[in-house]
Design goal:
Length: 352
């Protein structure tokens, strides 16, 4: 059996591919456009592994996707491919509209055509799992309950609006055409192989390099942090047992203010890799201009996933953030190649 994953050279998709092949023998066809966020070095351990079939391609390319579906006949598609960075969406929303909305539409159409051609048990078993975000629900005040699946959509950034649009398309393809879809809406992930433009890897690497640790605004914005391997286990669970047409919120039960996250990272680094001058890493914290339209608080109510499918995260924030800092301290080659851009040289050599 085979599944098709899109965006499997990115942060979450890469972890998903690695964890999948570590725990089962089912082949993964991994379609990724290798934007700046795609990094095949994450998957280097699979280079000789015939169960991982990497395909350099775009979810907007229908001919390519239809050919892949005909050739590999996957029992499921898991769609991670997206433009994912809120700040980049503010500077240049076009790519977000193109990939997150038009790309998802295209993938849905290819999946529908493929699924229509399946019969019997294969047709019954097929699933299209769409990976989305808690940001589609907008921003919470300090007193609001966490986001449930029934919250209305109120996206505030070009990124979250594009993800919201993709979720609506996925929903419509189920209601109109019967495509057996599943949607997961997840909170902030962190862990190994996270591209260092997002808060947690940025802070670890800037701290070690003696650079400022930029905190937007007052640093009191709250996120609900989920260790990436817990997210991957939730997706596997939803793929196995989720009910077609349903959405499942995935969260870590770990609400933290950004400033507290940064201070925690600084304290772990003080312990594991103290500064040469003996000073605390916290001295590198700098408050900078806030993100335009910055959402104040996200929090996920993940009880539906626990009640219906028995999933809970394995990591607390304390255990997950320590593992993450340790990972960055012991993976200097991956980090060096990401930081100096040389991972792109290899991609260019390999793929032109
Ligand atoms: P990422 O930016 O690290 O990776 C995205 C991957 O998609 C990259 O490998 C990139 O090359 C690929 N890609 C981009 N455009 C493509 C296209 N047109 N065709 C094929 N591949 C393309 O993102 P991530 O953090 O791994 O997020 C994965 C998914 O999870 C996204 O859909 C994102 O919206 C969602 N999500 C992320 C988080 C988070 O905290 N990172 C939380 C909730 C949901
Ligand atoms: O909530 C899920 C979302 O989490 C995903 O859908 C997105 O794909 C993912 O990128 C992430 O979005 P955020 O905007 O929350 O993540 P980011 O790491 O960019 O920022 C986390 C918080 O830290 C946010 O409140 C902004 C703040 N921040 C970020 C950076 C990069 C800073 O204070 N300073 C920074 O330099």
């Amino acid at each position: 059996m085979t599944i098709l994953v899109t965006g499997g050279a990115g942060f979450i998709g890469g972890n998903f591919v690695l964890d999948w092949l570590a725990s089962q023998n089912e082949t993964i066809v991994n379609l990724d456009a290798l934007t700046y966020a795609g990094n095949l070095e994450t998957l280097q351990s699979l280079r000789q592994d015939a169960r991982h079939v990497f395909v350099h391609g775009d979810i907007g390319d229908s001919e390519r996707i239809s050919a892949l579906l005909r050739e590999h006949r996957p029992r499921a598609i898991v769609n991670f491919a997206a433009e994912s960075h809120v700040d980049r969406s503010i500077h240049g929303p076009g790519d977000f509209i193109h990939t997150n909305i038009v790309g998802t539409f295209n993938l849905l159409e290819c999946a529908r055509e493929y699924w229509n051609g399946l019969e019997g048990g294969e047709r019954e078993a097929f699933r299209f799992l769409h990976v989305s975000t808690d940001e589609v629900y907008g921003s919470l005040s300090a007193e609001d309950p966490p986001f449930a699946e029934t919250n209305r959509y109120e996206p505030n950034s070009p990124y979250s609006a594009s993800k919201a649009a993709s979720d609506h398309l996925v929903r419509a393809w189920h209601h109109t055409y019967g495509l057996p879809v599943l949607t997961t809406n997840c909170s902030n992930n962190y862990g190994p192989y996270h591209f260092p433009e997002k808060l947690i890897p940025l802070v670890i690497l800037n701290a070690l390099a003696g650079r400022p640790l930029p905190i937007y605004g007052d640093g009191q914005q709250v996120r609900d942090w989920l260790y990436v391997k817990d997210h991957c286990s939730a997706i596997r669970r939803v793929l196995d047992a989720g009910r077609p047409g349903e959405t499942y919120n995935v969260g870590g039960w770990n609400e933290k203010a950004n400033l507290d996250v940064v201070r925690t990272i600084c304290a772990i680094l003080d312990e594991l890799r103290p500064r040469d001058d003996g000073k605390a890493y916290q001295e590198q914290i700098r408050f900078v201009d806030d993100r335009p339209g910055h959402d104040r608080r996200y929090a996920i109510d993940a009880r539906k996933l626990e009640r219906e499918l028995g999933w809970r995260p394995a990591e607390t924030f304390d255990s997950g953030i320590r593992k993450t800092v340790e990972w960055y301290l012991s993976n200097s080659k991956w980090i060096a190649h990401v930081s100096d851009g040389s991972y792109r040289d290899w991609l260019n050599k390999q793929y032109g």
